[in-house]
Amino acid sequence: MAAAAVVAGLLAPVAVSAAGRVGSGAAAPAAKAPEPSGSECRTSVAGSRVVAYCHNPYPTTDVVQLHTECARWWDVDADGKPVAVRPGATVRLEDRCWKEVGSAWVSHHDG
């Protein structure tokens, strides 16, 4: 009998909470769709050089940054300076390694 009272006491808050959600009839407000943003970037590697072109077709400014990892362990990897890409604008980002490029990519930051 005491065990049944303990179980009932533990389940009561759950039942009240579920009833409040089901019976309230109020729908949660719909989340606003995020505005499209961000530049489209095309990166190319030729030998030891990296070039990226980023075009921003959206009405908000995007900030892009070129990152380069060199293939040789002794070659210095680099993170380029962040560059603002205004709406409708295209920017050119470039970097190089002493020898071969291992990988290169562009990151986007809030502008």
What does this structure look like?
- The model is unreliable at about 5-10 and about 15-20 (pLDDT under 50).
- About 15% of the residues are buried.
- About 20% of the residues lie in helices and about 40% in strands.
- By secondary structure, the chain is an alpha+beta fold.
- Strands 3, 4, 5 and 7 form a 4-stranded antiparallel sheet that branches. Strands 1-2-6 form a 3-stranded antiparallel sheet, with no helix packed on it.
- The protein is elongated.
- The protein has one helix spanning about 1-25, and strands spanning about 40-45, 50-55, 60-70, 80, 85, 90-95, 100-110.
- The protein starts with a helix and ends with a strand.
Give unreliable regions as ranges.
3-8, 14-21
Report the end-to-end length measured between terminal Cα atoms. 65 Å
The helical percent reads 10-25%
Strand content: 35-45%
Basic shape: elongated
Largest pleated sheet = 4 strands, antiparallel
Alpha plus pi helix count: 1
Quickly give the structural class.
alpha+beta
Mean pLDDT: 81
User: What is the CA-atom radius of gyration, in angstroms?
Assistant: 27 Å
